[in-house]
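Attaching the record inline, Q. Sequence:
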Amino acid sequence: MNSTSSLQEIATSLPIFSEPEQKEIFLFVLGALTAKIISLRKAAEMMNLDEEGLLQTLDLLGIEFSYLTQEDIEQESIW
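Structure, as predicted:
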């Protein structure tokens, strides 16, 4: 199985987005966000969503997203 057919199978199994192209873009965006290559704003733009809409989509899928490090989160909780 090559990587293109694997990506298509994974994209097809996503329970959101009706078009396969949207699903593939979402997988790309998810990877880029996780690797901190793109901003949330750019990711939302690529998905034709606003930032809040993208965050809600991630939340619905059970994907936790934050640019904060564990140390940042601990510092915030002290305030």
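The first helix runs from residue 3 to 13. Residues 3-78 form one domain.

More tomorrow.
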